[in-house]
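Changelog-linked ticket: flavin mononucleotide example.
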Amino acid sequence: MLKYQVSQHIQKTVLIPVCRKNRFLSSFYYCFFSKEFSREHQKVLNGKYTHIKALKSNKPNEFHLRRETHRLEKGLTMKEQRPLFALDYINDVVHNYKILNTEYWNNPGSVDTDLLLWSESIISKYFASVDPHPTVSKAKSVFENIKHFKRPKELLEVAAELPVPYFRREREYNSVTYEDMLKLSLQRRSVRWYMDKPVPRDLLEKAVTIATLSPTACNRQPFEFRIFDSEELKNVIGSIPMGIKGFYENIPVFVVVVGKLSAYLSERDRHVIYIDGGLASMSFMLALETLGLSSVPINWPDIEELEKKMENVLHLKDDERPLMLMGVGFADPDQKIPYSQKKSPQYLIKYN
Ligand SMILES: Cc1cc2nc3c(=O)[nH]c(=O)nc-3n(C[C@H](O)[C@H](O)[C@H](O)COP(=O)(O)O)c2cc1C
């Protein structure tokens, strides 16, 4: 105990003040005196490895196709579209699209067919709109020889050709007013006490549908919603985090948003799972309110012991991390909710 206190004292009075001064010393500190970032390092590296491995061995990599298709689509929406663009990656997009199509034909169900349709549509529009060039011709001839996934006949009438990209005027806007949004935001509060009433899965799925519409970096959507509604499992999940110890058993459903670091090639994107997962979680919680459900976000600090427990229960891969936990259910109207005073904009905004 004494040894621990002395070491803590030295850290606080000597090591931290000195090592914070430059990057080399900071790395030295985190290499020899604190292991706090070590799991993150390993997870990020595992994600990078998985991403590279898939690309190198011609394995399907949906994240890559999403990102590249997104880049092409952005090019198609430029006010003054360049006559030639994407020469440095069009072959790569087509190559990846081909791999995912092949995967679909070999193993239907393993590939998101909406992604294939979106991708096909964007790539076709790209070829139709750029000027002739040997690189484009090469990619085009590969593309034309792909056996494309087609929408099943029975769905053709329902889903007309994908309007990609589309004009803003083609969609209806403004059916939700500011007042509606304010009411919904005031309605959503962290609820910790729930009725003993099962939560229909279709409502959860509807809320996830809204969550999928959140923005994500390069449209990668690097997360999964792992939902636990069986009495036994949801209590196992609920017993892991620290912040809900006194009341987790009364929460009917737990949702763990899991981030996938295999979505990225580069360390510069290592924080994006947290941003994207946070944005999607917020949309999810607001959507729940519109469906009569309530929620509570749950603290998930970076604690090795807890993460290991969660990894075991969820069977997470070595490049996946829990980002966000939420409890969901029908709020018990006879229990109290903390008021939780909010800052007013004047304390939050700094212009220019
Ligand atoms: C990342 C995060 C972690 C949270 N962790 C917990 C938690 O562990 N236990 C809990 O009771 N509430 C938790 N909350 C809820 C906050 O206490 C709550 O959002 C905050 O007090 C504001 O209240 P409101 O959500 O009702 O606006 C968490 C919220 C967030 C965003």
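Closing comment: Example verified and attached. The first strand starts at residue 223 and ends at 228. Residues 38-56 form the longest helix (19 residues).
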